[in-house]
Design brief:
Blueprint (H helix, E strand, L loop, with lengths): L2 E11 L4 E6 L3 E2 L3 E5 L4 E5 L3 E3 L2 E3 L1 E2 L4 E5 L9 E5 L1
Antiparallel strand pairs: 1-2, 1-10, 2-9, 3-8, 4-5, 4-10, 6-7
Length: 83
């Protein structure tokens, strides 16, 4: 398995456990991602994606998406897709 960088965290809403990601590559519901930063390092499956408060099954390069995260993340944490 290899990790391919697909974006970074731009915001984190702790009361919702939601991260906003700026994508540089496509991302789909069901794919596994790895979020890594100075104090962040975990993997999870993407269970939902939202663009402008609308649920979607996939997002493309250049989209800003909101995802539910299992742990605290920080702005500038890198997001990788596990392939």
């Amino acid at each position: 398995m290899s990790d391919v960088e697909i974006g970074k965290v731009t915001h984190y809403f702790d009361h919702l456990n939601v991260a906003v990601l700026a994508l540089t590559s496509p991302l789909n519901v069901g794919e596994t991602i790895h979020i890594h930063g100075h104090s962040t390092d975990f993997k999870q499956t993407v269970t939902s994606l939202q663009i402008k408060h609308q649920s979607v099954q996939s997002a493309k390069q250049g989209d800003d998406v909101a995802i539910k995260v299992e742990h605290i993340v920080h702005p500038h944490d890198k997001v990788f897709k596990i392939e």
